[in-house]
């Protein structure tokens, strides 16, 4: 970078930020549990403050493909991820189920077929196939696994390790590689569309992305990579490969399914349906090694129970729940969960077919609606929204609400200060009043600018 670049900072300032941030990531990754909320949120605020200083110049930097990627900051993004390579996940225990499923696969057992509690009861598989210590770490022993085939592939690879830490490291390596690949693809896509490639740092340097994906080994990182690769291949006019890549994203996490209506709306019914059918066909092929009737029934049962029984850090659902308590006198999740899903589906389809808005904005709004209507919003769910915001951020549309949500989502960890877990209404009110308030302001600003551009007289 030259000194004339808006992203230029003195070497001392940059190295100071890098070293301080590295120390903070080390403290969070290796010494802080989710029960230590004051320390957890204090360190996170410092990381977010440093992140804001680094990304602030992006909003005034030239928006043109001639701008070169900032190698120091992209390198910093890689360093922060590598620093967490040897850390056991401290903020999420999902990794235990990943290892559990992987060890079953290693023994030739279909993880979709049995409940962990059934296996621990004995008589189903040899006792040596299950680990009582690992079982004690499971957060859902009474539920069938819901992790699609690509996840299961990585889980199986991790099971070759002799220890839980070794398995975590094996899980973390593809996540780090996927995240770095995502950054490369984002920069390429931005340059191809005459945008500043350094906008990829909105994702790459975001502490939520680093801590929740690399730190807590969540495979949204792999899903986002395959989704970005699908977009890149589409723009290279390689639709078959693009469909295959999107199928890999869906076979990692099911969320990218919401992109198919957007593809149909963008490409037209004939071309869009052909692409969507290719994607679905590839997904079916990826599920074949695991498929049987019990797989389908068990996954549907787990998803149904998820919507009917689980709730955490929700927003609009909690408002509905409180109304239900007031009117009916009990938690209405079991009754309204399905209706919320149907309403969300209608809303997503409606947004997908609003052709007056660019595709990135439609995707951003669809993800926002999905999270707003969800009964459970863990912090790592916001990572997909941050990824989408990279291609929306511009003077015409600020993404303040997304970046602040990635900061405020960590307030949900205040629930783990209590035993049993108890969410604090103050944290929820603070998080969502700011997020939705900024969403309204950001979207209003964008709509006003769009209307002004439409009404402006054409140049002669």
TrEMBL record:
Q: Which domain of life is it from?
A: Bacteria
Q: Where are the transmembrane segments?
A: 12-30, 37-52, 72-91, 165-187, 208-234, 246-268, 275-297, 336-357, 369-392, 398-416
Enumerate the Pfam families for this protein.
MptA_B_family
Sorted keywords for this record are: Membrane, Transmembrane, Transmembrane helix
Question: What is this protein identified as?
Answer: DUF2029 domain-containing protein
The organism named in the record is Fibrella forsythiae
């Amino acid at each position: 970078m030259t000194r004339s670049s808006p992203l230029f900072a003195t070497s001392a300032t940059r190295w100071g930020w890098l070293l301080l941030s590295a120390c903070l990531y080390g403290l969070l990754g290796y010494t802080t549990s989710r029960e230590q909320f004051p320390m957890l949120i204090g360190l996170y605020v410092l990381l977010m403050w440093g992140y804001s200083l680094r990304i602030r110049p992006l909003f005034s930097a030239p928006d043109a493909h001639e701008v070169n990627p900032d190698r120091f900051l992209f390198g910093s993004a890689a360093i922060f991820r590598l620093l967490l390579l040897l850390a056991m996940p401290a903020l999420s225990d999902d990794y235990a189920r990943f290892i559990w499923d992987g060890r079953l696969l290693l023994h030739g057992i279909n993880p979709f077929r049995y409940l962990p509690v059934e296996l621990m009861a004995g008589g189903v598989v040899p006792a040596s196939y299950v680990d009582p210590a690992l079982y004690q770490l499971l957060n859902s022993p009474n539920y069938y696994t819901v992790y699609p085939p690509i996840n299961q592939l990585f889980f199986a690879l991790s099971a070759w390790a002799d220890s839980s830490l070794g398995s975590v490291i094996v899980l973390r390596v593809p996540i780090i590689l996927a995240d770095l690949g995502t950054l490369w693809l984002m920069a390429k896509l931005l340059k191809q569309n005459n945008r500043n490639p350094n906008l990829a740092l909105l994702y790459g340097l975001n502490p939520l992305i680093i801590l929740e994906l690399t730190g807590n080994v969540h495979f949204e990182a792999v899903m986002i990579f395959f989704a970005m690769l699908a977009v890149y291949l589409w723009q290279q006019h390689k639709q078959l490969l693009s469909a295959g890549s999107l199928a890999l994203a869906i076979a990692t996490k099911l969320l990218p399914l919401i992109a198919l209506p957007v593809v149909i709306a963008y490409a037209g019914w004939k071309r869009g349906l052909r692409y969507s059918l290719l994607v679905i066909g590839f997904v079916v092929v990826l599920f074949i090694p695991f498929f049987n009737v019990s797989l389908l029934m068990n996954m549907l049962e787990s998803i149904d129970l998820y919507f009917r029984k689980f709730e955490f850090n929700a927003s609009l659902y909690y408002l509905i729940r409180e109304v239900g308590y007031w009117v009916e006198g009990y938690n209405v999740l079991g009754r309204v969960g399905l209706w919320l899903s149907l309403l969300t589906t209608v809303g997503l389809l409606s947004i997908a077919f609003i052709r007056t808005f660019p595709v990135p904005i439609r995707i951003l709004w669809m993800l926002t609606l999905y999270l707003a209507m969800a009964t459970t919003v863990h912090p790592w769910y916001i990572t997909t929204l941050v990824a989408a915001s990279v291609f929306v951020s511009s003077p015409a549309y600020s993404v303040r609400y997304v970046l602040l949500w990635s900061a405020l989502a960590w307030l949900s960890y205040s629930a783990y200060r209590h035993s049993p877990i108890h969410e604090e209404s103050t944290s929820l009110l603070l998080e969502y009043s700011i997020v939705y308030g900024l969403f309204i302001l950001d979207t209003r600003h964008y709509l006003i600018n769009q209307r002004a551009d439409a009404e402006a007289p054409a140049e002669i």
